[in-house]
């Protein structure tokens, strides 16, 4: 075996994608010392996208003081890609649930303003291609906060600015975009969006994702009404259909805001990442691809990293092995989507805390065994 491409996602709460790739390579190298092991840590457009793209492009991490989802200041990170013209922003870094204790979550008032501040910082640094990952948001404000940071004014019937949050959008009477940052017209946005929910309705942002952000049934109804009005106002202002476009409801309606005001396309996060890190070029001349994530199960086939990697690998006619921290119900489904074999790191009954604590050792042992199995193919018959 001449070349193996190692393209895993992170193992959540234990190992970054870079660490996973390094550990797998170390385990394989112990059994396949003469094989080229190309490490290419990736992500699916959610958490870890920033790290994966900065690693792949030798980019620069930039720390920025922004407005958090509750209106209080916090520090968030975004990345300037190696070419100096591209940027990657994880919405969760500025406006994510991770910043709000569970008992304090309130999507009626939470704001995405900080995400707009990150975009503004990227513009200030000269970025004109911006990858915006929408996963993990704490907000249900339709992206109005993000756009406010970029110059849009949301006014009530008396011409007064609306307060932050999704509930206030029910009072929206006028949209003033005259001060929208003119640099946005020079940009191209790739919006990493792995859901196809519309803005409103039974599959909309408030109904499906509101409860995760702290909304009870009454709050969901209030937010639904507010976003319906907001969607109508957006369409009137922009002269195009917004609310019913698949993905408009992503990240509490951030998808709708992007469609209305940003020169963008909504794409699956895994495809954006794999294109950006150059996976297809890396697969040239390879004999095998190894991917993985913290848990492989029936949900893996819905836009997750291992399936995205496997589909690219199959275009090149390559076999694919996936290594998971654990295997869950329905994992067999991955075999219908390009993954030929799966391996679990955990070798015995254990607790979650113990598995997380020993993730690195378990992963290296699993990779070593995969390497030993591959080496058998080359071993001479006796």
TrEMBL record:
Keywords: Kinase, Transferase. It holds the Pfam family Gly_kinase. The keyword Nucleotide-binding does not apply. The keyword Transferase applies. One of its GO terms (molecular function) is kinase activity. Belongs to the glycerate kinase type-1 family. This is Glycerate kinase.
